[in-house]
């Protein structure tokens, strides 16, 4: 480039020797001032046209390298667009599923509250409506305050009784050895020696109130006329500790349990 411009005068000032060649219009200029001047005068962008035809006789290694960079840029753009479209589709699909879940939950008499996207409880929630079985599969967080342990079931049918769902943790015959070890106090008394509580989300401020659930009933019945934030968190409490869980009533208007 330097050799080709060594004896060429600037196309703008016609005084100094040209030092630059515009990649768009090939005008030769000597300084930044002249470069800007030529862009204004000729309405030139100063950006090389990446798709401009170059004959094989004039094709150089620099042109080949430039074409490879152009193709890489296009490949990144296509992949980015495809990823964005897929992400947008996934978001719409997820929003549709959440909408269906909330509608079905309302039909069950459950006031299901969904948190904004990005919040940890929203990300963790695996609750879904199974269309084939026409059944809600709930994510349940089990808290065992006496031993400071918690476990999570990702998919519990609303048709299953609360007691059956709990037995896998505290039944001496059905519980896994790991659960028996960590939940020894609970396994000693079994389901007959515990009460299950669900926090009353409608009680404002620091007034903690709970719903005591009947573990002989199905999860569907237990959650009827309750407010749930994303998924139920159930407190499994020994009988002698129930005084720490005051109960209170909850009312939901305009919902119909089915």
From TrEMBL:
One of its GO terms (biological process) is snoRNA localization. It comes from Pocillopora meandrina. Gene3D superfamilies: 3.30.60.190. GO terms for cellular component: nucleus; pre-snoRNP complex. GO terms for molecular function: zinc ion binding. Required for box C/D snoRNAs accumulation involved in snoRNA processing, snoRNA transport to the nucleolus and ribosome biogenesis. This is HIT-type domain-containing protein. Keywords: Metal-binding, Phosphoprotein, Zinc, Zinc-finger. Coiled coil: none annotated. Belongs to the BCD1 family. Residues 10-44 form the HIT-type domain. It comes from the Eukaryota. The keyword Zinc applies. PROSITE patterns: ZF_HIT.
